[in-house]
Amino acid sequence: MGTFILTSGQIIEFCTVCHNNNSGILPNAPQEVKNVLSMMELANTVVSWSEEFVKDAQKVKKSTPESEKQLALAVGYMKQARLSWHTFRMEDVSANIKNAHTAAKKAREDVRSH
Ligand code: HEC
């Protein structure tokens, strides 16, 4: 990936050069990858929100051990999602993204409920 990152739209364009209905080589692969990438972008945003949220709570001593634990989990799952990306096993990537999303939400909820 190095110095540039493809957006989900560019991915589709690039991949459909080979993966399309004419070639018949896994024509659904680009769409599937694009969907997972969009989920990854969304989960990244949600995890960042939770990071900010928990940081603000820490400043006013309102943060909870559970929220910090969930946030650490969320960050860890996102890291796993990015690593599993290179395996092209989209079900592994999705599972990590979903876990990250859930943990990030729990982190915020736990702060709110205290
Ligand atoms: C130069 C042509 C070409 C391009 C560009 C290309 N692919 Fe492929 N891809 C192939 C071929 C050929 C296969 C093997 C198909 C098979 O095994 O029948 C393949 C296989 C795959 C597989 C299945 C891998 C597996 O082990 O099951 C996935 C997923 C995939 N491509 C996704 C993508 C994505 C996402 C992109 C864009 C980032 C992309 N491909 C770009 C030609 C291409």
Short note summarizing the structure:
This protein has 114 residues and is an all-alpha fold. The protein has four helices and no strands.
Please provide a written account of the structure.
This protein is mostly helical and 114 residues long. Helix 1 packs antiparallel against helix 2, helix 2 packs antiparallel against helix 3 and helix 2 runs parallel beside helix 4 (90-112). The protein has one domain (8-112). It is elongated. It contains four helices and no strands. 25% of the residues are buried. The model has no long low-confidence stretch (mean pLDDT 89). Heme C binds next to helix 1 and helix 2.
Write a concise keyword list for the protein shown above.
114 residues, mainly alpha, 73% helix, binds heme C
| Strand and helix order | HHHH
Q: List low-pLDDT spans.
A: none
Tally of contiguous helical segments: 4
The count of β-strands is: 0
Tell me the number of structural domains: 1
* Each distinct ligand: heme C
What would the average pLDDT be, to the nearest integer? 89
List the helices and strands and how they pair.
Elements: H1 8-15, H2 29-59, H3 65-85, H4 90-112
Helix pairs in contact: 1-2, 2-3, 2-4, 3-4
